[in-house]
């Protein structure tokens, strides 16, 4: 397969518009016309992982963390980032990063984290804001069903667990075409008063160009009347973190032992015990100190994340068990999920899980 054929598969797994603004996701190194012979999936595309890709004849490395995060002004091999990039380029190896595009996916990093702990009734902890737009358009009743169905097919009309959602109302539309007009109904210079259907649908903002293309190609009017609004609604199926419930409550000590075993932690740093049982658990893979207040507001008994600083442990206010299980550990099973997904989608060459342990934190 050519690399450009694989990119849509990766973007289906983790849509790039889902990523946080600060992030650097997508194709970081490589030529889209390159023929791909094998894919190596890893957590971090370090130099030893590039060596592994060379040995295993994989010329595409799909990594969770982007090896290129901040801008580079020089590539001289003076640090681990530059050495990995130089080796990849020298050996015609492409690098694709997923990171927060998968963090924000409802089946992504935090669902994987939740599933590893057996959490039930899960939902997004911090739903993404300013991501929903609304299209309003007008057409004749005879065109309404075709147009509406085409918009649904393009991705509009999805609200939570429901699809094909729209609001439709009838009214009177008017127009008068000038000398350059070619009206579908009536003639130029003729005042037309016609029954029309008003169609309202919501859509994710990254679909806007696709939605508009669909609108124009399925609308019968020469000039299409439409409006697009940005909504303040939170997107309940896109966002960071997740909260769910254990099948049975645990005391705090047993819960941390359970987490340590399931997530294969070298150690867990935690706030003082609250002496409450643990039933409702919030998780956020990677650096999640910003989400402690959200976990409290959601009524969590425990919040599991990583990279907590000294003073951030105070933010639990003695109301929940706040625990730092390790950055790598909290995202541990993400690369396995990516491998399983790609194996289902691509069957004509090897998809290989990296055997390199790229966790920089060790425990004594």
Describe this structure in words.
The chain is an alpha/beta fold and 364 residues long. It is 28% helix and 30% strand. The protein contains eleven helices and 15 strands. The protein has helices at residues 3-13, 47-55, 80-90, 100-103, 109-117, 141-153, 208-218, 252-262, 292-297, 327-330, 334-345; strands at residues 26-29, 38-44, 60-65, 94-97, 120-128, 132-139, 167-176, 191-204, 226-230, 235-250, 269-270, 278-287, 302-306, 321-324, 350-353. Strands 5-10-12-13-14-11 form a six-stranded mixed beta sheet. Strands 1-4-3-2-15 form a five-stranded mixed beta sheet, sandwiched between helices. Strand 12 (278-287), helix 9 and strand 13 (302-306) form a beta-alpha-beta unit. Helix 2 runs parallel beside helix 3 (80-90) and helix 6 packs antiparallel against helix 7. The longest helix is centred in the middle third of the chain and has 13 residues, at 141-153. It is globular, with a radius of gyration of 25 Å. The mean pLDDT is 96.
